[in-house]
Each structure stands twice: as C-alpha cells, then as structure tokens.
Amino acid sequence: MPHDTLALAKTLIGLVLVRDARAGLCAGKIVEVEAYVGNDPASHAYRGQTSRNRSMFLEPFRAYVYRIYGTSFCFNVTAQSEGEGEAVLVRALEPLEGLPLMMERRGTQRMRDLCRGPGRLCQALSIDSNDDGQDLIGSADLYLADARFASPLIRKSKRIGITKAAHRHLRFYERGNPFVSGPKHLNP
Predict the structure, then answer these.
(1) C-alpha distances in angstroms, 128 versus 37, 83, 142?
(2) What stretches of the chain adopt beta strand conformation (E)?
(3) Domain boundaries in the chain?
(4) Superfamily of domain 5-186
(5) What is the pTM of this model?
(6) pLDDT, tens digit, for every residue of 62-114?
(7) At 125, is the secondary structure helix, strand, or coil?
C-alpha cells in the first residue's frame, strides 16, 4: 500500500474495514474518504503534535481515532512516515458483514444509514478511543483487508463538514455508491 497520503486515500476506496470483537464480526467496504495533508489548516496536525493528535504522527497504517462534538468518534488511517502527521479520514462504508449487530449498535434497520458518515460507521463497528494508535495491518480485531472487488470509479470533491480549506478537492468516493455520505451535488 502507498505511503503518500493522496495515493493512500484513493487506494483505501474498495478495501474492507473489519472489526472482529467478542460481540461478533462486522465489516464494510470503504466507499468515501478525506485526505488531511501537510500544511493543511483543516488538519489536526497543522499546529503540531499534541496529546490529542499523537496517533496521527505514528507510522503509516495506524488508527487515529478522535471524538468530535463530544458525541461521536472519527476513524482515520495514518499515511506518512512517523512524525509527519498526515492521515485519511474514513467517511463511509458499504456494510458487508455483521448487519444485525451494526443495526443494534446504531438503533436502525435502514442499511443505508448504518455506516454513511464517520460517526455512524464508528458506532456501527464499535470504534472508539480504545482503538487509537492500533496497527491496522497487524491487528486481529480492527484491520484493513483487500476483498478483491472490481476497481471502483473514484471521483473527488471538496471536503465536507469543515470550514478551513474546505474548497480543496481532497475527498474521494466511489461514484454511484448509495452509501456515500454528503449532499447529492457533491456526489456526481
């Protein structure tokens, strides 16, 4: 897998994020991501390393998990060499395995609403601050897998839900996938 943040963002589309926990196995195909690169005022790493963003500065393919708005978690994949502070936010999954467990965790029967959005996917897969810093290649309970799907048509757009540098086209998604989040005009 690539270590360049933008290349990693595109490569993540179509990979599977797997959570294998005591409660059961849940998995989903990654269909939407956003890259947070160097000199990016929207990035948590923009002002340097802190106790909150420490995991973002780890070697590639580590989980960077943080709480947003005091209620939800967001899951990222670190991208650069240790000390660089770049990552890719996973925004949406297409649910594949463990749907009853995801529905229970999310409190909905609507499959489209299980993992469409970063907070929802963390809730559906039970990803929280305990997963921060985890190795996503070598771990047995939260990891990235290649399921050999056909190569998706990847589109890009401006990022969603931020105010700083929102105009930058650093959001990548699988064209035509109904599980992609955000407004329809950003998902042609």
Answers:
(1) 23, 23, 11
(2) 16-21, 24-36, 63-68, 72-78, 87-97, 142-145, 154-157, 171-174
(3) 5-186
(4) Methylpurine-DNA glycosylase (MPG) (3.10.300.10)
(5) 0.93
(6) 999 999 888 899 999 999 888 889 999 999 999 999 999 999 999 999 999 99
(7) helix
